[in-house]
């Protein structure tokens, strides 16, 4: 183990040469050709013929030929086995490329990454250049191909149906007698760590050695041997200098307290895309959307991919990661999982010609054209405007326009890196703009314009905005003794500045995350085996502490595998010594933020805090590059045989394998590097950090792999059986994800069961619920996109639904969605359809019906598609069936502006049905979102259908009539209202008369609604969660007092009823504002506050004379008359008593003077609601308990006359003072107070 650890500290593991194998000759790249054949087969006949014609027109110099690994040194190392197929494919992803002397032949550098099954990585750095072809057989073969090509072109041009003649400059473009043929060759370094700039310098100097007119000082074998065996990795926090062929190479590595190593130029990414696009791409990566990068430059693909994942610190991308996808693997874009892939373009096809298997959840980034296509409903990153401003200031300090620049090259950019002296000089000479926001033509950029307006509102002069320059003396020792090139230093400094700004955002947002981590009391093996069933983070509590604008992003981010893996790492690493590097660095920064927050509290607010530790990070880099910690052994002559190491200009030599196959065996050169040997502890520490050899890290890697079974396609074996096995893994992964999502949603929704299973509190917020349903929509889109034959539109699910509508007409839900004009896109319609089906409890049935047409499914999907795996499909539908166990309002609560048709039926009493009823009835319906106008109901049918903007969950109905005609008395049993889109039916029980001289004389009543439970078996309903707060079957039935009807509740039961009613209101206000249900149900519903206080006033009420009805309102009116009597006014009472009496009488007068004909019971309800709103109920109870009218109208045993019980009641009612109660308009209509 020790020797392995020692050896793996080498700077590079392998040196590789790829190119043309002259022994095997020209071989077409069969995998790429196969992919083109598959693509052509998907098109129709005419399109296939066109594709074939285009292939005939393809010049032999532009065709794809197979490249091979010609040599690699050493043969193999135990800590990093050599994968020949993967390396060959990624070194030259397009295969061999041929050129003539007339074509450009500039060398091209690119890097790549190989991810192993255990999650560990190797980095590759490749330089591709062109060598003259010396093999006569190859030149003759190319000449033969051109003869055949010219003959085919001639036949095509003379076909009767041929269009305009193609350009003929391709003909005879290679002539063996006058042209020189060149072929691509690649040299590559494979390394355990991504020292991109150093490896690039090594390769470029090797290439310079073979193109120079003078031979290198030493044979190339000496330099390659040196970098493979004699140059170590610098340990954390140190720098290293070693020798290239012509100049020294410097690399430096961050310490354990700094951000992890990252050596790709972030300046390139921001110049290529601009700040706005980078931030959108960054958001997509955090939320685990499918991301496809598109460029004709391989290095751009790699740079953007590595930059985005590095900016995610402390989080790590957990899914498929292939920055460079070889042409032969483009079928992997069919993967129904989150991925980050890079696709090479030929520079000719635009976005419209690129056919992608799935686009519903895709972020498409056209790097070369400064363009990004985002998925729908992408939430905004928290504090985006201030974040963009801080990033822009950092870029401007290095002379980079925040909106990007299309002229960015592939090389390291020439960064300005202003210093204070330069700035003063430039200002004096007029070379520096007065305001950085006016530079680089930023005024045309919308985001920068908003930033400029924001800065102006703060009162800061833009002319005085600092460019965040380093304030140091230009003659300082640090800058005089820098051991690397200035451009390289500027790249390091800009990188660390931008990375610190991004890391600071997460440090601020998650400064208190440790408080919400749910630590397990199980051992690690038990925890790992039960990981799928456990919650590791208290998401609801964390979100409740966050500023409102952050919630759309954070609620979705907390559901990602990225965040779950981060928390898993936290749980598995209890001690600081066990923590992996990224977690340790992040926790240290979090501790600093919390310490600062004690002095200046800013956490849990939307106050933006800029990064404060940039200077410290920049100084650490400057120190390392100004004082080199170690210089490696210089290259030296090797023990080579005579004649070896010969030099031939223009050709990379065939290296001598006998001297490169193994490292030094003796101490001959070790004596020269005594000062360079580091302690073994340093080596072991870096090995644990970067190469995942610690057992603890294995647990973490296993935990991370729970949601991501495939990180990278198998590049070593691309046989049909391996491709089938990969697709089978996708099918299993989709089924597992479906099972986990449905279980999570049910557990969160059902509440009580969640508490019993140990998942924390059983409540789920609307933000969380909406996030979970959105993720379910994404999953369904990925399932319907997997194995799709021909894609039609961006949403595969909606396309399938439209196919079914053309064939069969029984999916009414789809027709409802089609008729909603507010939803414009196919993806939006598919998501609306899923939400509506869930709300109707028909999702599983609809999808089963959709997949019942097997012929259509076979026509649309390939054999390996998820939807054609019968067993998995049945399990999938069974999991979705469990959603019928709970009530969702996911369509009603999201699509709040759509027009909804409602059907209303007023049901009169069967015994006194009102066939003689002569008045004109009306109705007004209220919901959580809005209410209707007064609607006239035909008295002959008592039914009405109308359309209005979504009312939300229905809460109350006002029903009444105009008291016209001879018989204007109406006994209403109930009112039924049905939402014709969602199918929800609400019942509003009444059971009371409406008419003068009957009951309490009310002409209108306010009814509280109850959602009707479907009872038919065809609803596929398994069970119900506790329903919404129900209204009483007959509101205020006990208020009509007669000798035969006395209250049955005793004082203890009444006290309990009041306590429960108050407790329900208190719980209501402890929920987030957006998650609260209707307060009207808690006030006026069954067992609500009005009912409970009604029981208080009915207890001990004296029996009236026979045949006379007395109401609570009669008692209150007599009490009002008593308080307003001249005798009471003349009595000397304290000021509080007079204030309470005045308020009581004022509200009584206001309720009595309302133009509404709501009757005495309705007036009592209105008074209680107004008293609760203005926190006066406890004052009124105290006032009435001491009123002489109470002595007259109540028995001695009445609750209102018991001082102890009254004091208890007052204390309970006083708890309402802490809440701001807002009443529904239907409850206070006509009241001016």
From TrEMBL:
Pfam families of this UniProt entry? dDENN, DENN, PLAT, RUN, uDENN
Q: Which residues form the PLAT domain?
A: 900-1008
Q: Does the keyword 4Fe-4S apply?
A: no
A GO molecular-function descriptor: small GTPase binding
Q: Which SUPFAM superfamilies match?
A: Lipase/lipooxygenase domain (PLAT/LH2 domain) (SSF49723), RUN domain-like (SSF140741)
Tell me which InterPro entries the record gives: cDENN_dom, dDENN_dom, DEN5A/B, DENN_C, PLAT/LH2_dom, PLAT/LH2_dom_sf, PLAT_RAB6IP1, Run_dom
Q: Where is the RUN domain?
A: 767-896, 1080-1228
Q: What residue intervals traverse the membrane?
A: none
Q: Where in the cell is it found?
A: Membrane
Instruction: Give the record's keywords alphabetically.
Output: Guanine-nucleotide releasing factor, Membrane, Repeat
Cellular component GO terms, alphabetical: cytosol; membrane; trans-Golgi network
Start and end residues of each UDENN domain: 49-580
A GO term (biological process) for this protein?
A: retrograde transport, endosome to Golgi
Return the similarity comment: Belongs to the RAB6IP1 family.
| Record protein name field | DENN domain containing 5A
């Amino acid at each position: 183990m020790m020797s392995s650890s020692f050896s793996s500290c080498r700077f590079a593991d392998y040196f590789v040469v790829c190119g043309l194998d002259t022994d095997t000759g020209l071989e077409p790249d069969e995998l790429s050709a196969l992919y083109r054949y598959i693509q052509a087969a998907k098109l129709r006949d005419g399109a296939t013929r066109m594709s074939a014609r285009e292939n005939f027109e393809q010049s032999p110099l532009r065709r794809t030929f197979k490249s091979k690994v010609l040599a690699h040194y050493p043969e193999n190392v135990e800590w990093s086995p050599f994968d020949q197929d993967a390396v060959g494919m990624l070194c030259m992803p397009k295969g061999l490329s041929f050129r003539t002397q007339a074509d450009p032949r500039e060398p091209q550098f690119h890097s790549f990454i190989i991810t192993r099954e255990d999650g560990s990585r190797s980095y590759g750095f490749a330089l591709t250049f062109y060598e003259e072809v010396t093999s006569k057989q190859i030149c003759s073969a190319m000449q033969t191909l051109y003869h055949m090509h010219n003959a085919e072109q001639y036949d095509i041009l003379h076909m009767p149906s041929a269009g305009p003649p193609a350009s003929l400059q391709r003909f005879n473009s290679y002539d063996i007698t006058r042209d020189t043929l060149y072929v691509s060759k690649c040299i590559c370094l494979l390394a355990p760590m991504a020292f991109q700039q150093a490896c690039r310098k090594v390769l470029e100097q090797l290439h310079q050695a073979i193109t120079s007119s003078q031979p290198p000082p030493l044979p190339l074998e000496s330099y390659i041997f040196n970098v493979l065996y004699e140059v170590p990795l610098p340990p954390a926090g140190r720098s290293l200098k070693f020798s290239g062929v012509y100049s020294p190479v410097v690399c430096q590595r961050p310490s354990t307290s700094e951000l992890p190593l990252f050596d790709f130029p972030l300046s390139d990414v921001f110049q290529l895309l601009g700040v706005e696009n980078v931030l959108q791409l960054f958001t997509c990566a955090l939320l685990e959307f499918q991301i496809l990068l598109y460029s004709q430059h391989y290095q751009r693909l790699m740079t953007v991919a590595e930059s985005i994942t590095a900016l995610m610190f402390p989080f790590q991308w957990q899914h498929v990661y292939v920055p460079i996808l070889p042409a032969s693997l483009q079928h992997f874009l069919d993967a129904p999982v989150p991925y980050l892939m890079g696709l090479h373009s030929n520079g000719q096809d635009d976005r419209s010609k690129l056919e992608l298997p799935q686009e519903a959840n895709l972020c498409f980034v056209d790097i070369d054209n400064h363009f990004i296509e985002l998925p729908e409903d992408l939430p905004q990153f928290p504090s985006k405007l201030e974040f963009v401003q801080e990033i822009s200031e950092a870029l401007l300090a290095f002379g980079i326009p925040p909106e990007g620049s299309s002229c960015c090259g592939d090389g390291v950019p020439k960064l300005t890196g202003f210093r204070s002296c330069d700035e003063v000089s430039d200002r004096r000479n007029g070379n520096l703009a007065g305001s950085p926001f006016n530079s680089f033509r930023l005024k045309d950029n919308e985001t920068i314009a908003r930033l400029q307006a924001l800065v102006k509102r703060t009162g800061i002069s833009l002319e005085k905005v600092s460019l965040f320059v380093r304030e140091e003396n230009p003659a300082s020792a640090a800058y005089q003794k820098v051991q690397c090139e200035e451009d390289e230093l500027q790249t390091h400094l800009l990188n660390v500045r931008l990375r610190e700004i991004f890391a600071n955002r997460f440090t601020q947002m998650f400064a208190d995350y440790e408080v919400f981590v749910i630590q397990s009391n199980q051992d690690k093996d038990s925890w790992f085996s039960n990981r799928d069933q456990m919650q590791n983070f208290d998401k609801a509590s964390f979100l409740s502490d966050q500023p409102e604008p952050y919630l759309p992003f954070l609620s979705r981010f907390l559901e990602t595998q990225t965040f779950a893996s981060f928390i898993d790492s936290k749980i598995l690493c209890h001690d600081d010594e066990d923590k992996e590097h990224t977690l340790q660095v992040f926790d240290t920064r979090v501790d600093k933020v919390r310490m600062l927050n004690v002095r200046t509290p800013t956490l849990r607010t939307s106050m933006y805090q800029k990064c404060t530790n940039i200077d410290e990070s920049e100084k650490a880099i400057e120190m390392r590059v100004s004082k080199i910690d170690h210089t490696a052994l210089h290259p030296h002559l090797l023990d080579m045989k005579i004649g070896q190491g010969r030099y031939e200009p223009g050709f990379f030599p065939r290296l001598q394998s006998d001297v490169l196959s193994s490292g030094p065996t003796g101490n001959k050169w070790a004596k020269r590097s005594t000062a360079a040997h580091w302690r073994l502890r340093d080596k072991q520490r870096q090995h644990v950090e970067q190469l995942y050899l610690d057992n603890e890290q294995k647990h973490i890697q296993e935990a991370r792999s729970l949601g991501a079974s495939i990180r990278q396609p198998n590049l070593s074996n691309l046989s049909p059986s391996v491709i089938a096995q990969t697709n089978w893994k996708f099918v299993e992964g989709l089924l597992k994800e479906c099972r986990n999502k449905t279980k999570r949603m049910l557990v969160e929704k059902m509440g009580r069961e969640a508490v019993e299973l140990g998942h924390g509190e059983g409540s789920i917020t609307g933000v969380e619920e909406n996030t979970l349903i959105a993720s379910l929509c994404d999953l369904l889109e990925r399932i319907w996109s997997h194995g799709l034959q021909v894609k039609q539109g961006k949403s595969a699910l909606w396309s399938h639904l439209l196919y079914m509508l053309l064939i069969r007409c029984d999916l009414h839900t789809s027709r409802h969605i089609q008729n909603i004009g507010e939803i414009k896109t196919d993806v939006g319609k598919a998501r609306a359809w899923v939400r509506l089906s869930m709300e109707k409890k028909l999702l599983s049935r609809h999808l089963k019906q959709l997949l019942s047409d097997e012929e259509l499914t076979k026509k649309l999907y390939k054999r390996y598609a998820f939807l054609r795996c019968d067993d998995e499909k049945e399990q999938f539908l069974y999991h979705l069936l469990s959603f019928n166990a709970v009530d969702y309002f996911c369509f009603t609560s999201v699509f709040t502006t759509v027009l909804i048709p409602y059907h209303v039926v007023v049901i009169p009493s069967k015994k006194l049905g009102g066939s003689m009823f002569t008045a004109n009835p009306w109705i007004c319906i209220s919901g959580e979102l809005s209410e209707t106008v007064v609607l006239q109901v035909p008295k002959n049918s008592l039914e009405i259908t109308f359309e209005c903007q979504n009312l939300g969950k229905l809460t109350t109905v006002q029903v009444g009539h105009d008291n016209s005609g001879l018989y204007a008395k109406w006994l209403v049993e109930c009112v039924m209202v049905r939402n014709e889109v969602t199918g929800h039916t609400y019942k509003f029980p009444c059971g009371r008369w409406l008419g003068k001289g009957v009951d309490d004389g009310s002409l209108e009543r306010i009814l509280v609604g109850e959602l009707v439970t479907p009872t038919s078996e065809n609803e596929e309903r398994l069970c119900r969660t506790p329903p919404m707060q129900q209204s009483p079957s007959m509101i205020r039935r006990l208020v009509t007092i007669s000798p035969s009807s006395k209250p049955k509740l005793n004082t203890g039961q009444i006290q309990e009823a009041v306590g429960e009613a108050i407790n329900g209101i208190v719980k209501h206000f402890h929920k987030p504002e957006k998650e609260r249900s209707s307060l009207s149900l808690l006030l006026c519903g069954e067992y609500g506050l009005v009912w409970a206080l009604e029981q208080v006033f009915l207890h001990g009420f004296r029996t009236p004379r026979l045949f006379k009805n007395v109401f609570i309102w009669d008692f209150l009116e007599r009490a009002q008359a008593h308080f307003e009597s001249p005798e009471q006014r003349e009595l000397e009472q304290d000021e509080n008593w007079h204030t309470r009496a005045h308020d009581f009488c004022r509200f009584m007068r206001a309720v009595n003077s309302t133009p509404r004909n709501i009757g005495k019971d309705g007036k009592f309800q209105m008074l209680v609601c107004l008293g609760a709103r203005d926190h006066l109920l406890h004052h009124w109870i105290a006032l009435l308990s001491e009123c002489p009218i109470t002595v007259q109208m109540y028995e001695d045993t009445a609750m209102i006359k018991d001082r102890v019980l009254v004091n208890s009641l007052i204390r309970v009612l006083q708890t309402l003072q802490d809440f701001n109660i807002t009443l529904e308009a239907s409850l206070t209509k006509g009241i001016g107070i």
